[in-house]
Amino acid sequence: MHIGPREITTPFRPIPLEVPEGMKPNEFFNSAENLRDLAQNNGLLTNPENLLLYRKALGHSWEFDTSILYNTSQLILNPLGRPVRRTQVPEAVKRVWNRMNQLLIQYMLEEYPDPEEALVLAGEASLDATWPLTAPGVPSIRMLHNHFIVFPMEALRQAELADPANPNLTDGGQHSLFQAYMRRVYRRFLEEVLNFQILEPLPTEQSQLKLTGYPEGLPCWKIRGGGEALKDIRFWREYDALLQGFLDFYRTFFSQVSSRNAPLLEDVYFPEAVERLLLFDNDFLKTAKKVRDRCIQDPAYANAIRWQPAFKQLIYRNDAGDLLVTISQNSVGNAITELLGVVVKRVPDAAAYERFEPRLIERLLEVRARLIEADLGEGIATSAWPAG
Question: Which residues span the domain enclosing 264?
C-alpha cells in the first residue's frame, strides 16, 4: 500500500442560491442574507450565545460532517469585524462552545470507536480579514466555526493518491516556512511558554497517520485521558494556551518581516518569552530578513503574505487510538482535512448525495438531541427535519 495524501471525492447537492448581479460569490456568502438562508435550510440547533449547529451543504464527508458557527452575522454587519479565532470569543460564549465541542467529539468517538475503521477529526481555522474579499480560496463564511468530520478509512484506502504538490498540502515538513527555517526556535518557544498538564508532546512517528504520512513535521500533543479529558475545563485552557503561543510566534515573526528590528508587540500573551527567545534569536531574525528581502523584490510573493495570524488547530485520532492536538499556519484554500493529508474533491451529484443523506441526517439529529438535553440549544426546523 502506497503512503501519501489521498484525494477523496464527495458528492453534494447544488445549492439553489442566486448571487445578486455585480457580486462575487464569496462576497455574497459573507452576507447576513446568506447566513440567514444557511440557518433556515441547513440549521440544526441554535442558542442564546449565537452558536449555530448546521449541516454542511458543501461538505467534506458523506459519513459525518457538521459545523458550529459563531453566527454574528446579524450583530456585526461588517464581515471584517467578526470574531475569527477562539481568543476573540467572549468567555461566556466560549464556555458553551467548549461544551458543545466536547459532546460532539464524544459522540463521534462512541459511534466510531475503531481507528482502523474511521478517521475522526475536529477543529477550526482562522478566517481572517487578511484575505481580499475577491481572492480565490477566500473562506465562504468569514466567522469562527468548527468542523466535525468522520471519514471511513476504507474509502481513504481506496482513494487515489493526491498530488503532493497540491498547493493545499503545504502546511508541514519541508513546505512550511516555520518548519523549514525555524523548526528549532519554534518548538523551543512553544515548549517553554506552554506548561501543560494534560497535553503531552508526541514524536512525529506516533502522530503521523500511517496511510497518508501526515501531519508532516508539525508539533503534536497527546491528550492524556483521551475523550474523558475533554470534559475537564483544564484541557480547553491548554487548548487556548497553545493557540496563544502560536499567535505570539506568528505575529512577532511577521512584525519583523514588515519592519526591521520592530519593537516588542504590546499585546502578546508571553512577552518575556517573546523577547528572550524570539527577538534575540539569530535564526528567527535572519529568516525574517530572508522573507522581507523577497517581499521587496517580488510583488506576487508579497501579495500572498498573510500578515495577520492564519492557522488551523485540530483535534484528531491517530492510528493507536489516542487523541492528539496540533496547530499549523494556514494557506489560502486549505481545509483542516488537508492537515491530515486528505484532499476533498467536491462534485455536484444530487443523486449520489441522496443515497448517503438519510443516514447522515439521522446521525446529525442524534447528536443534536444530546446537545438539547444538555441545555446547549434549541432545535431548528427545516424542510428536511423537525425542530425536535
Answer: 171-330
Phi, psi at 160, each rounded to 5°: -70, 155
Question: How does strand 118-125 pair with strand 64-70?
Answer: unpaired
pLDDT by residue for the chain (388 residues), tens digit each?
A: 689 999 999 999 887 777 888 887 767 776 777 778 788 889 999 999 999 999 998 889 999 999 999 998 888 888 778 888 889 999 999 999 999 999 999 999 999 999 999 999 999 887 665 555 556 555 556 778 899 999 999 999 999 999 887 777 765 544 567 777 888 899 999 999 998 999 999 998 899 999 999 998 889 999 999 999 999 999 999 999 999 999 999 999 999 999 999 999 999 999 999 999 999 999 999 999 999 999 999 988 887 787 888 888 999 999 999 999 999 887 645 578 988 999 999 999 999 999 999 999 999 999 999 999 999 999 999 999 999 8
Please state whether the peptide bond connecting residue 79 to the residue before it is cis, i.e. omega within 30 degrees of 0: no
User: Is beta strand 199-202 parallel, antiparallel or unpaired with respect to 160-161?
Assistant: unpaired
User: How many Å separate Cα 265 from the centre of its chain?
Assistant: 26
**Dihedral, 351, 27, 130, 86 alpha carbons, nearest 10:** -60
**Is 0.90 surpassed by the pTM of this model?**
yes
Cα(10)–Cα(181) distance, integer angstroms:
36
325, 339: one domain: no
Cβ(89)–Cβ(96) below 8 Å? no
The CATH number of whichever domain residue 36 belongs to comes to 3.30.428
Q: Answer for the pair 126, 309: CB distance below 8 angstroms, yes or no.
A: yes
| Beta-carbon contacts of residue 267 (< 8 Å; ≥ 6 apart) | none
4 and 142 co-located in one domain = yes
Q: Cell digits for 179?
A: 518548519
DSSP string, 36-89: HHHHHHHEEEE-TT-EEEEE-TT-S-SSEEEEEEE--TTT---GGGS--SGGGS
Torsion angle defined by CA atoms of residues 344, 346, 350 and 352, in that order, rounded to the nearest 10 degrees:
-40
The CA distance from 259 to 263, in Å, is 9
Beta bridge partners of 221: 201, 325
